[in-house]
Every structure is written in structure tokens, then in C-alpha cells.
Model the fold of this input.
Amino acid sequence: MKDKWESGPFVHVDRGSRSNGSLRLYRLGFLLLGLAASCVGSIGNTGGERQSGTAGGPGTSSGVGTNSSSGGAGGASTLGVDPGRVTLRRLNQLEYDNTVHDLLGTNSQPALAFLSDTNATGFDNNGDLLSLSPVRLDQYRQAADALAAEALAPPLRANILTCDPTAGDACISTFVTTFGARAYRRPLAADEVAGYLSLAAQARAAGATPDEVVSTVLRAILVSPHFLFLVEIDPDPASTAPHPLGPYEVASRLSYLVYGSMPDAPLFASAKSGGITDPSELQTQLTRMLADPRAIFAQNFAEQWLGVQAIETSQPDAMLFPTFNVQLAQSMKQEVDLFFGEFVRNNLPPEGLLTANFTYVDDRLATHYGLPSPGTAMTRVDLTAAPQRGGVLTMGALLMATSRGNRTSPVSRGRFALSDLLCHAVPPPPPTVTFPPDSVILATTERAFLAQHRTNATCATCHSLMDPIGLALENYDAIGAYRAMDHGQVIDATGNLPDGTTFNGPRELSQALAKEQAFRPCLANALLTYATGRTLGSSDQPYVDAISQSTSGATFGLRDLLTRVVASDPFRQRRGGI
Done:
């Protein structure tokens, strides 16, 4: 039977006996349709249409979230170039779980059951591809149910509810203005608070107990677009003139860059004072946050940049590679995390990512690499006397990620070096190309097979660029173990870069790539892409060049690159328009 308040904007769905105290009050359709109606474009639509991020909450006010009108993060673009615009994007799975943990204190990970996020340009935080389907909406609703029940029970209840629900609107108002501000990652406007008070009144009129009223409001907040999305406001959505992000918007960008989660108390305080829009304060906060145990930037960026985020799910042929197991893959990924983390922490030169003479291993990974065992814990080890290893190109995780389950793939390894380290565009194979079966490829060495493959003029154009690079890594098998022979032949690891630079083996290849002028700008490109959550375009190139340009005679490290990314116009500004 239709409930008497189902006709309003807040939809009640009866999932059980009213006597069990379970009020099923949801506002998904109202909230998300309300957001879409007040945006330019639509929410996360699969057609790639972008939005200007003007959003209305329960009160549907056009003045909601006008924090972008204040702050001094720079007016016009300092380079006179378009700083770009980020699609109103929802939290990805990692960000959702981290945010509900920090907001509620829960250790549950509801996003593990969500639909998988789409990865683009190497990263999973691209707003253009973080679409919102009806299935995902239902998953958010179910997660809100479970989270609200957990949060309003001991011991979490005291963390989020500081008033007595029997006090009625006084408590609801306190709850919405305090907890709601943390969930929205900004203060709520008066009409937004009024919208939640109206929702609470409807719940009471339907017979809800005081605790059920709070639960109703809490669940509504957890399915609000202002919680599920990173909302940034354009005062004039049609204008292409750059404008500074507001202090709370800057704080959220910085927090999701470093923590992959909502701002912490010092960052909220800096946003409240407006200090976060000052470049020096922004850098102070960045430095503080990178040293915080919550910081996940190094591992999250590095794993996605190198394409090794899911390496433990790899399933190489067990007959060919009996030493591989999940534990070994986990050690490989930890090596990447710790190695990249040291470059951020100690501000080491970016080129050292390719040429460093140290890494991190435990006994399992050391055995795989043929190194002395340091013990069961991941330990920093010197590689001066181990020329077979050094830099990311010789790490097991990357070597596995660029291999097949039963063989290496010089093509994939070469493509990675060209596209991800040098930003050299490599087109996909023509649709008319047919791929030979593995039995043909495995019948001889990769070098011999690819030499024959390049006799096809259609294939030679790209393969002549990729193959000579990937073949320099043929001393590593499909799980990254070193080998000297293949098919009874000593491996020939010579090759050349597109500019003619020659090398022999992984160490010389790494040194050659590190000297390429394109390497540092390419890394800066990846950092800016990850930091802004959007695909870069040609108008971003001046910013990439400025970020990556070193000062003559000065030490220039990886953290300096990140610092410049955060100080750049694309990170601190945006524009409207399409």
C-alpha cells in the first residue's frame, strides 16, 4: 500500500514490518535528479558530456556551495593558458571506502561489492569515466543502510552524534551542521540544513522514533551527491574565464590527491580560514600530509602509473612458473610502493626511478631476484654489486604486468617505455592485423619472431619503435626472474631508441631513457593527470613544461615535481563552458 509520504520527494520503501522500527526512507531519485537538473550536462554520463558542477541539495538552492567565489588561489591563469575543467566526478571505490572510514570510523569496505571503476589514461580517478548507473545507485543505497546502522550503534555512535535525538530539530540541526559539513567537505547552506529538517519532520510524521529520524537523515546524507561527488562550482557555468577554486574545493583536491580521502582536521581548519588558497600555506599542508601515515599518494600513484595495481591477481602458467604465488606478487607490489615512496619522502631526482642502485626486498623476493636474503621484512638493499637489478624497469611487478601468462611480451614492454615513460604516442594495431597463435610465437625466440613480424610493412611502422626497447628486457622472463638463455640461445639484449641511441641490456636501456628530455615532462604529465582527475589536452602542455623545467644548478626531486603540480593553475583553478 502506498505510504502517505511517498508522493513527496523523499521516497519511502517498505522492506519489512513497521513494528520492527525499520523506516526505509530514501531520496536517491530526488537528490540525483535534482543535481542533474541544476548542472550543465548530466552526472557521469557515459557519453562523456561534462558538467559545470552547480549542484542543489535537499533545499535545491542555486546558491549552494558558493565557496569558489572566495579565496586567492590566483585569478587569471598565470601562463595565460586554459587551466581546464574537471568533470563533476564521483568518488572511486578506494576513495569511497577511505572516506566512510574517516567520516564514520567504520572498518567495513562496502565498495568491494560495488561495480568496478573504469580506468583511463592509466588512472582510476578520471571524472569523465566515473559514470553513475542505476545499479551503482542501488549499491550506494544498500551501503548507506548498513553504514548508518553501524554508525548509530556503539562504539561509533559517540563519534558522530553529539546530541540527544529526543531534542528534535535542535539535535537534527546540530547533527546536520557538524556531521553534514564533514560529509559534504564544506559548510552547508541554510536551505540545505532546512531541507534535512524538513526530511526529519516527514519521518516523524510517519511515526519514526528519534533514532530512526537521525538514521533517515544520515542515510540521506550518505546518498547525497555532495557526499558521493567532488563538487566544484562555476559561478557562471557558461563562462570560459578561469577562476580560482574555493578554499574547501582546494582542500578536497589536495586531500584526495594525498590521502585518497576526505580532508583531516588541520586541512578543514585551513579551508575555513581561507589560508589554503595561499600558495605557501598550500605547500605547507602538502608537506605535512605527505609525512602523515594516512598518505597513500606514493603507492596509489606508482601502482597505477606502472600498471601493477592488480598484480596479485595475475595467473601465470603454473607449469612454466611453479615458483610464482600470490605472496610473491604482494612482495613485488610492496617493492614498488616503498621504492617510489622513498623518492617522494627524500625528494630524490626523478631520473633515479630508472637508474637507482637500491630497492626493497624480503626473503621471498630476494630469492626470486637471486639476491642475499635480508629476512622476512621488506628491507632496503644496495644493488651496486647486483647489475641485473636497478630501477623500475627491472622490478618483477612491472615485468609481470607487461608479459603474458606463458611468455614475455617485448611489444608490451617497449610500448610501456615509449608511452608511459616518454609520452611517445603509439597507435593501436590496424583492425586488419591478425595475431598469430602463441604456439607460433613460442616456437622460437621473441627476437626471431618479431624480426619476422616486422617484414610486414604495416606492422613494421610501430614495431620498429617498440621492439628494440622491449627486447632489451628479454633477460627477464614472464614473472621477472633473470635468465641468460632462451630456446638454447644466449639472449641478445641490444636495442635502440627511436632517436638512434643504442644500448645493451636493461641497465643501459634505463640510463638511456633517463637521459631522454621527454622523461621528466612525461612524468609531470602523469602527475598532473592524476592530481586533477582528468585527461590532459594540448592546452595543458605549457603547464607540464613549466612543472618539469629544472632550475639551473639546483637539485630537483620528485617531491618538487609534485609541489609544482599542486601550485599550478590546473590544480588551483578551473573554468566553466563546454
Observations:
- Residues 305-515 form one domain.
- Residues 1-76 have pLDDT under 50 and may be disordered.
- The longest strand covers residues 358-361.
- DSSP finds 25 helices and twelve strands in the chain.
